[in-house]
Amino acid sequence: MHTYAGRYGEALRSWRAAAAGYRRLGDLPGHARALSEAARVQEYAGRPEESLRTCEEAVAWARRAGDLRLQAALQLRLADTLERLGDAAAAGLHRAAAERLLGEDVSGLRNP
Hints:
Blueprint: H1 8-25, H2 28-44, H3 48-65, H4 68-84, H5 88-102
Helix pairs in contact: 1-2, 2-3, 2-4, 3-4, 4-5
């Protein structure tokens, strides 16, 4: 709700708190998803470089969790962010990585 109301600071604090809670509980996929949402808030707030770093962190946690579908979805989110930053080549590499993870076309997979 905070995000859509434009209260990005509050939204980011909430998602970071959720990420920390999931991490403490040992819920690695939950931690990765919460970080992904924090990255979304950063992007909406006009901070794409921070969003990129947070999304990279989310991908790493999804990898640790062994959740291939989540990892692929986060790779696609990372690709979208890279495209918005003007790095089409890197975006293509992340899309290809997502496709390799699932062994199929993942173009319809969005928003973890």
